[in-house]
Amino acid sequence: MFLKSQNIYLRAVEPRDSDVLYEWENDRSIWAISNTQIPFSKFVLEEFSNSSHQDIYTNKQLRLMACDVLSHETVGCIDIFEFDPQHARAGVGIYIHKNFREKGLASECLSLIIDYAFKTLHLKQVYSHVNASNIASLNLFLKSGFEKNALKKSWHKTSLHLFEDVWFMQLINYGD
């Protein structure tokens, strides 16, 4: 167990996660949010799950699996990406499987990763890009203290001729 709250804990990716990652990464309904356009092979995800180099300082990213405290079932994942130790900032992205949404788990995950980012990685800020139509995610980040700091007009292409605005959301660490 890496980080723990009342209902969930975050842990490193393990080899047993390759099946669930295969399902999630190949879910076309979330590709627009995750900036994915091609499916991931089982082999690539097995290699990732078996990888021993999950060093955030080397890879500039970290994925943690979110698990239910009681059942130990994997309910989602949270990513730190574009980790920039020089400027003390990183992006944050979160995915909770549809079967576990609307239970406050995303909020707990985000709280744990913010605490880790500020107290362990000593970051000055974390940020996220949230589609303007994704009201649930906007509310999650706002509730967690993020501010809407810029609207990126027509930022995400959603179909051949349609684009969606994206909010750049930021949480600054004013402590310490």
Written description of the protein model:
By secondary structure, this protein is an alpha+beta fold. The chain has one domain: 3-Layer(aba) Sandwich (Aminopeptidase), CATH 3.40.630.30. Helix content is 28%, strand content 35%. The chain is built from six helices and eight strands, in the order E-E-H-H-H-H-E-E-E-H-E-H-E-E. The protein has helices spanning 18-25, 31-34, 42-50, 56-59, 105-119, 135-143, and strands spanning 3-4, 8-12, 62-68, 74-84, 89-96, 125-131, 147-157, 163-172. Helix 1 (18-25) crosses helix 3 (42-50). The chain starts with a strand and ends with a strand.
Figure out the total of helices.
6
As for the CATH topology, it is Aminopeptidase
Mean pLDDT: 86
Give the name of the CATH architecture: 3-Layer(aba) Sandwich
Shape: globular
The CATH class name reads Alpha Beta
Structural topology:
Elements (H helix, E strand, L loop, with lengths): L2 E2 L3 E5 L5 H8 L5 H4 L7 H9 L5 H4 L2 E7 L5 E11 L4 E8 L8 H15 L5 E7 L3 H9 L3 E11 L5 E10 L4
Parallel strand pairs: 5-6
Antiparallel strand pairs: 1-2, 2-3, 3-4, 4-5, 6-8, 7-8
Helix pairs in contact: 1-3
